[in-house]
Amino acid sequence: MWTLTEPDMAKAGAALAAAIRAGDVVTLSGPLGAGKTTLVRGLLAALGHEGEVPSPTFAIVQPYEATRVPVAHVDLYRIEDSHEIEELGLDDMLLDSALLVEWPERADAAAWPQALRLSLSVDADGRRALTWEVPGAWEGRWPPPPLRA
């Protein structure tokens, strides 16, 4: 577990960018305002994206192809039935992109068994706690050394 300030979230995203590959899935769980999109912004900046990174709450899937690793930023918050996810074509995107999935709880419990599962929470002081579950596909890549201020 890492305890992070909001600015540290971008550093955590950059650490993730160093490890991510096409075909990877990273799920991001946590309440509204916990820093999921902030972490994604840090990852995309580290991958070479220049420009805005809006939350994909309304678009649901926001692709970023002009980066070192193409990424699809997915927000399942508005999904009401896990069967709707099949229509998004996410599995096809994994052929040449990585998926960053916010609100994975909206998907079937068996979705993405080899995903790196990141969870964020916020304490009363505004610090974020970042915890993870590391599947075999991510062993040796995550977690990286602790973040430096």
UniProtKB/TrEMBL annotation:
Q: Which residues cross the membrane?
A: none
- Extract the Pfam families matched here: TsaE
Q: Which SUPFAM superfamilies match?
A: P-loop containing nucleoside triphosphate hydrolases
| Region forming the signal peptide | none
Q: Which domain of life is it from?
A: Bacteria
Q: InterPro entries, per this entry?
A: P-loop_NTPase (IPR027417), T6A_TsaE (IPR003442)
Q: What is this protein called?
A: tRNA threonylcarbamoyladenosine biosynthesis protein TsaE
